[in-house]
Amino acid sequence: MRDSATGAREGRPPSAPVGPALQSLLEGLGGVAWLKDEQSRIVHPGKAHHLRDTLAALLGKSPQEYLPPASAELVRRDDLRALQDGPVETEEWLSVGGTAARLRVRKFAVVGTGGRPFLCCLARDAAPDHAGGTEAAPTSAEKRIEHRLRMEKAVAAVSRLLVTSDEADLSEICRILGEAVGSNRAYIFETREDVPTMDNTFEWCDADTSSEMENLQNQSFDDFPWWYGRLQRGESILVPDVDAMPPEAAAVQATLRAQDIKAVLAVALTTSRGELWGFIGFDDTEGTRRWAPEDVEVLRVVAEMLVSHRERRRTRATLRRQRAVLQAILRQMPSGVVVVDVPSGEATFASKAAERILRRPVHGTNYHAVSEKLKLFYPDGQPCPPEQRPLARALEAGVTTTDMELLIEQPDASRSTLLVSAGPVHDRNGEVIAGVVAFTDITERKRIENTLRHSQRELETRVLERTAELAQANEALQQEVTERKRAEQGLRLFALQWQATFDALTEAVSLLGTDGTVVRANRAMAELTGVPLEEIVGRKCHELLDCDCPESEECPLLRSSRSKRRETVLKRTADRWYSISTDPFLNADGRLDGAVHTVRDVTEMKRVEEELRENHALLERIFDTTQMLIAYLDTDLNFIRVNRAYADADDRPPEFFPGKNHFDLYPNPENEKIFRDVVESGVPYHITEKPFVYESNPERGVTYWDWSLLPVKDESGEVEGLLFCLLNVTNRREAREQIHAYQKQLRHLASELSMVEQRERRLIASALHDQIGQTLALSKIKLGGLLESLGAGPHAEELKYVRQLIDDSISYTRSLVFELSPPILFELGLGPALEKLSRRIGEQYGLQVRFSDDGRPKPLSTDLRVLLFQATRELLVNVVKHADASFARVALEREDQHIRITVEDDGTGFEATESMRQTGAEGGFGLFSIHERLDHLGGRFRISSQRGQGTRAVLTSPLRAGAEPA
After folding, report:
1. How far apart are the C-alpha atoms of 3 and 963, rounded to whole Å?
2. Among 263, 429, 575, 841, which is most buried by a count of CB atoms within 10 Å?
3. CA distance linking residue 286 with residue 263, whole number of Å
4. Do residues 362 and 347 touch, judged by C-beta distance below 8 A?
5. d(CA 14, CA 21)
6. How many CB atoms lie within 10 A of CB 79?
7. Has this prediction a pTM greater than 0.70?
8. C-alpha–C-alpha distance, residues 543 and 517, integer Å
9. Which long-range contacts does 124-133 make (Cβ < 8 Å, 24+ apart)?
10. 518, 597 in Cβ contact below 8 A?
C-alpha cells in the first residue's frame, strides 16, 4: 500500500491492492464507488463516473491532505468504525483543485489479496419521495437495487467475520450468502489432502429444505469429471435448469435430481498457487432460475475472501507452531538467549535464563539502555567497551562472535564469568535486521576448575613437605572428590538438555569422528535416511546415503580436514539430490577432531534449476533463429543483446553491438525521442512502414520497417529495458505501390473501352434509325397506299397482316435503338432521357416509377452523360429483376459543381457489399463496374440496403465545365 501511495504522488498509477474479482465487484457497483486502505487513503477510484477525475487526483492521499483538520478527523473516525464494527452511513466531502462535492456515503469492509482489510465507499443520490404521500409499488429497477444492497450487506458481513476472527463460522457465512442470493441451500465443499475427493463441510438450509451434508461425504473427482474438471480450471458452474444439463454431465444431473434441485450455482475456491481447495454452492429447489452476472461476480469475491482467510489462518497456525517450538527450545536451554531488533534496539525475546543470569528484566526493554548499565570486563580485569561487546559487533558490523569469555559485575558488586556468543540475523537482501546473543554462566565451573587446580597443588605440596598432615590431606581430598561429582552431575544434566535441543532441530544433523564414523545423530537424520536412530551411530557417514567412500576427492569430510573450514558438496543417489556439509572441529594443534555433518534434500531445487535451463535453451534457440530483427537495450539505449537476424541486417556480427549506444550507430533525433518516451511512460510503441536509410550504406536506398518497441518492467513496475522488434516490409510496400499503378492503368483502360463501346452502340443505333427505321416507315406508307387502292379485295386481309408486322418491326427497331443509344440522350440531354427511361421501365414491367428533376442546369460531357444514363438503367433493371418492388423513384439534382442521381425502391433489399463483389465478378456492367468507372472519373457510387428494408443507390459526379447541358 505504501508503494501505491508513493506511485500516485510520483505520477504513476498505484498498484492494485486487491485481486481481480474484488476489482470487478468495485467497478460493477452503481453510482460513485471508491476504495480506501486502513489509513483512509484512497487507493482505487472505481468505475468511470462524473467524480472519477476528482478521485484520481486524490489517489494515495489521506483526508488530512484534502480536507480541513476537523472534517478529516470525522472522516477518519467513520472509516475506523466501518472497518471494526460494520457498515456505516455518513456524509463526506471530496475536494480537489477548488472543486468540492458533498456525498451520502455507505462504507463497509472488504478483504483484499493476502487477507488485508480495505474499505469500500459507495455513494448514491437519494430517491425522491412519492407524490401524494402514497408509497408506490416497487419497480423492477428498485428490486434490483434492493437485491444489490442485500448483496453489498452480505459481502460486508462476510468480510467483517473474516477480518475480525481467524476462526470465522463458515456455516454462518453460508447462511448470509444463501439468504442474500435467495437460494434454498448454501454449502461449502472442501478437498481432502492428497486424495481426489471432497466433503460437504459446512451447510445452511432454509426452513423448507432438508439437510444433505451427511449424504455428501467422500465425493470422488472420478465420479463427476464434468463438475470437478471445470472447478479445477477455476471456472464457476451456472446451471439455470438441471433438466437441461449436457449429456457429459449425466452423473451430476442424477445426483442433483435425487436432491430435488432445480437450479444450482457453484463457485470454485482456488488457492493462490492455482490449487482447488473446494467450492461454495447454492441450490434452488423451488424452480429454475437465471443467476445474475453481478451475483456471480460478488460470489467470486467472497470465494477469494474465503481462500485468503483459509491461507492466512493456515499460515498463522504454522508460524505459531514454529514459534512455540523455537521458544520452548530456547526456554529450556540452560544458556541465556536474547534477540534484539534493528534499528529500534528492543529486546523482542529474552529467555528466563537470560534474565536470571543478568539479574534484571530484559524482554520488551531497550537492550542498548540495559547494556549501558552492564559492567563487563575482559578475563584480565580490563573493562570491555560497549562497542566491542559481541552483540554490539553483531548489530553494527554483522560480526559473529563465538565463546568469548567475559566478566560481569552484578548489582551486589560480585562478579560472574560468562561464556558469550553472538551473531547477526540477515534478511533476504543481506541487511542485518536483528542480533542474537547467547551466554552461559560458567562461574561455578570456573570456581570448580580453580579449586581443583589449587587443591591439586596444595595436595602435592603437603605430600612432599608435610607427611605428618596426611589425615588432613585425605579429608581435603574427599571434599574435592565430592565437588567433582557435583560438577560431573551438572555436566550430565547439561548433556541431556543439549541432546533435547539437538533432536528438536528440523535439519538432518550428525556428529562425526575423524574417520567419518557417526558418533551422534538427531531424529531428522533418521527420517531423511530411513535408518533407525539406534542403528545410525557407529556407521560411516557415506553409508547412510550410498555416497562415495571418504577417500574420494568429493568427500566433504576429507576436504574440511584440509581446508579447516566448512565444505559443501552435492551428491546424487538413484532418484534424489542431497546437499552435504561438514563443519570441522579442530583441536589445539589445528588438526581435525571431528565434524558436524548436515544433510539437506535438494531434489526439488535441482528439478526447478533443470527446467529453468531447458526454458533458457529454448528461448535462446528461438531468439537466434527467428527472422524478425530483435534487440534488447537498457534504459540509456545501449545494446545489451541482439539476435543474428538484427546483426546480419547491418552486415555485422552479434557480438559487435553489446555496450554500444543505438543512436551512436544510427543517429536519428526523431527516433531517439520515441525510444526515450517509451522508457519514461512505460507505454509500448508500434508503427508500420517507417522509412529508414542506412547512413553507412546509402546505396541501399530507403527501406521500410514495421516497429514494435516494448518496455520491459521489473516487479515494481519500473522500466528496466526495451525490446526492439523490426520487420523489413520494403518489398511489401513496393509490391503494393506497383499494384496500385496497375489498378490505375486498368481503370483507365476499362473507361476507354467503355467509351469505345458506347460510340459503336451509337453508330449502330444511328444506322438502325436512319436506314432500317426509315425503310420500314416507307414500306408501311407504300403498303397503306396499296391497301387503299385494293379496297376490300381478296388480298386485303393479308396485306393488313403484313402492315402489322411492319408496325411491330418499327416498334422493335425504335426500342432497340433506345436500348443501344437513345437519341433523346444526345438531342435533349440526360434529364429527358432519364424521364423517358423511367416511364418506359414502368410501362414495360408494371412498376410504378416516379421521376423528378430540380430543373437546374447540369453541363456534362458526352461520355459522362452516357455513363450516368447506363448506370441508372442498370439500377432500374436490377430493381425489376431482384427487388420484388412495387414502387421506385429516380431523382436528378445538382449540388454546387456536382450532379447527383438517386435511385431507391421499397423492395426486399440485399447485402450491398456482397452484391457489388458478385456482380462485378460476373463480367456485366454491374454495380461493381458502376463504382469503378465513376471512381475513375472522380465521382462516387454509394449504395445502402438491408434485408426487408428496400435499397437506396446514389450516383455522384463532378460537372464538366463547357459541356452540354444535362
Report:
1. 75
2. 263
3. 9
4. yes
5. 18
6. 24
7. no
8. 10
9. 124/30, 124/31, 124/32, 125/31
10. yes
